[in-house]
Amino acid sequence: MIPNSFDYVAAKSLDEALTLLGKHKDDAKLLAGGHSLIPAMKLRLAQPQVLIDISRIKELAYIREEGGQIRIGAMTTHYQIESSDLLRRVCPLLPEAATHLGDVQVRNKGTIGGSLAHADPAADWPAAVLALDADLVIAGGKGERVIKADKFFVGLLTTALEQAEILREIRFTAPKGRVGQCYKKFRHPASGFAVVGAAVSLSLDGSGKCQSAGVGITGVSPKSYRAHAVENALQGASLDSKSLSSAAAHATDGVDANTDLFASGEYRRHLAEVYTRRALQEAAGRAK
Ligand SMILES: Cc1cc2nc3c(=O)[nH]c(=O)nc-3n(C[C@H](O)[C@H](O)[C@H](O)COP(=O)(O)OP(=O)(O)OC[C@H]3O[C@@H](n4cnc5c(N)ncnc54)[C@H](O)[C@@H]3O)c2cc1C
């Protein structure tokens, strides 16, 4: 349980971190909260020769609303999101999801950017940013690019991040009007990670019908995904219990569910439907 030896350097700015990444290339790994990377290093699943610590870069830790958009810096900790008055008011899905994540220590050190970049298939943040249809802002040596959350998660522990790129910001349109959100999670009894997690953001029109729906699901398959079939089934629907249940039945359409010692693929698919339905029902109730 002792990692390989490595060099350590603390970057003071995003530019310095990018320069260091460009210099050390595949030999380097970014260190954010360290709550996924350090365990992986102790197990020797990751053996970087250089750790570039980005946790002290103050310009990467913020939560703000600008021009109708919510912007969250990648180094914002889980706890900062959980305790943000702005988010509790404008986008309660994120503080709610944060409360499900690990324990107090993990929430105080771990960062949203580190979690998204790590792309654990059972992590909570991917479901939430998918439900919010968030844009992820990625900084690289040649400038920035923006990618939709839906395109960011590529596979097991794999994202669209290229070598020498840093996830800088998560941003999304601030939900307005009659909005209801909810995150429901079936925790693994040992690890606390999601066997299944369903994040929902609904907006209603003046007559109480569904104007738009965002549904993100984690834990089921090698990568978290946006449940488009559930979203499509809800479009224009009255949010009664029958329509919510029939939409939730599409939670795993087109998805290969993981099987492991704890849960078969069939059980995971069942849980995904049940937890999506519960999240939809609660979100619909909150929007009224
Ligand atoms: C006991 C325990 C319980 C946990 N429970 C949960 C849980 O219930 N739900 C859950 O979702 N998570 C859980 N986690 C994981 C936790 O949320 C981690 O904090 C998170 O997954 C990684 O964030 P980090 O800031 O610690 O990143 P690190 O561990 O520092 O980095 C993770 C990876 O991302 C890369 N990286 C980091 N930041 C960036 C960036 N800005 N741009 C590009 N690459 C970057 C690193 O190089 C590394 O490869 C748990 C962890 C522990 C130890």
Can you give a write-up of this model?
- This protein is 34% helix and 27% strand.
- The chain has 288 residues and is of the alpha+beta class.
- The protein has a five-stranded antiparallel sheet with strand order 4-5-10-6-7, sandwiched between helices.
- It is globular and about 60 Å long.
- The mean pLDDT is 97.
Could you give a short description of this structure?
This protein is an alpha+beta fold and 288 residues long.
Annotate the secondary structure layout.
Layout: E1 7-10, H1 14-24, E2 28-31, H2 37-42, E3 50-53, E4 63-66, E5 69-73, H3 78-82, H4 85-90, H5 93-99, H6 104-109, H7 112-118, H8 125-131, E6 135-140, E7 143-148, H9 149-152, E8 153-155, E9 158-159, E10 166-173, E11 178-187, E12 194-204, E13 210-218, E14 225-226, H10 228-234, H11 241-248, H12 265-287
The structure holds flavin-adenine dinucleotide.
Flavin-adenine dinucleotide binds near residues 31, 111 and 124.
